[in-house]
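Recall the central idea of this unit: under ordinary conditions, the amino acid sequence of a chain determines the structure it adopts. In this exercise we apply that idea directly, starting from the sequence alone.
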Amino acid sequence: MAGNTYYIEEAQGVAIQYKGNGRYAYETHNKWNKEKKKYETVWKYLGVVNPETGEYTKKQKPLKHERLILNYGDSFMLNEYSEKSGLKTLVEAVFGDMTQSIFALVFFKLIESAAMQHAQTWFEGNYARIIFQNADLSTQRISDLLKAIGDERLLRVFFKRYLDKVYTNNGVIIDSTGLQNEISFPFCAYGHHGGNIEKETRLLLVVDKENSQPLYFRYMPGNIVDVSTLQTTVKELSAMGVNTNYALIDAGYYSQDNITHLYDNSISFLIRLPAGRTLFSQLVEQTRFTLESIGNSVVYGDRALYIQKVDVTLYDKYPAFAYVCCDIKRRAEDTVKLLIEAKDDKLSQADIAEKLRRKGIFVLLSASDIPVSEVLPLYYLRQCAEQIFQISKSYADILPLRVHSENALRGAIFLNFLCVILYINLRNQLTVDTTVESTLMHMRNLMCKVFDDGSVLPSEMTKKQRLFSDAISCTVGIF
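Accordingly, the structure predicted from this sequence is:
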């Protein structure tokens, strides 16, 4: 027969189909179709008929040959979450062809917490090389990538789209930390923080007050103090459409200019008053006989405190509320320490009494009237920013900085920013009795085989691995 025409020949229960120059054998039988209420012929392919012998043989699929064995589960889980949450789509819309290398590095930092010079070695033995086949993690390419993703124009587009997705419009937390380094470039300078003088770059972070999502970052030389950065930060946020209607800020931002700026722009706030201010001494003196009363007692978690609210006027112009707080446990510990030191230092009773008055005392200032029972939970939301700094420094390996240009610095911090986003949201989705670190360690033990045809065969999951995988499978779009 010619072309695609064919005919069928029945022989000993086997149907021989002629198609073109080929003959093909099928086993046939009739099966009752309940819906159509009639018998239908069911065909089962048996093989190609040899025209000389009449025998038929079924073609065998070519055997696959094992090419690689890779760590599979950790990158698989991170990739599933990145795709289902919409984070990968958001990044790809801005950074295009760089996305694969960006996420390969993000996964490396979350899985290994090691210097990026080791990224290529990790990449060669991890399933990430299958996911991100166009990624290049050689040292030179990583350097080029950091400079490219540090382009201010790209970052502005990213943050505009990102903030539209995650900001709740209910206020921000602003905090900063030092990134110690010895790099010779304009953003490294000696700074004085926490009683230490170190060469550093200051990193300022903005966090959503309601959902604890990191929102934005800024950086500046280490010799620029926090008090100088608040107004610029608020203006930058405003330019990107973030209505900073409430700010939780630490004592380093307290100044007349900043307080004036907050009031003039109708930004409510909660801030810790620096202990060296005259107002602090006045409030301690004003409440010395009334603070430690049972009516002022507040229990916050496993801490017991006395808190007294006092009406104040800041800089003779702005009405506010001061919350004079005494941490009872801290006061007792500091008192014991002071009395022991006083004996060795031969302090007078007057000196001891003066020092004891301040032990365990801190003061919070608020532009709005907050119930005493709510002021501590609100203020300690600042710990979200501190936790993010901890993740950045210890887990996402932002230190030490190894960049020598401003673009590369922005790129390195942005890469770390993506790590933190992925880490925090993954942590929120996992069960309460596990951590991201533990989860990735368990998932890392899930291996896969890669065959010469490109197919991937994962090994069987353990019970824990299955639970972690199920937790990620229900991810909904966030970004």
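The radius of gyration is 33 Å.
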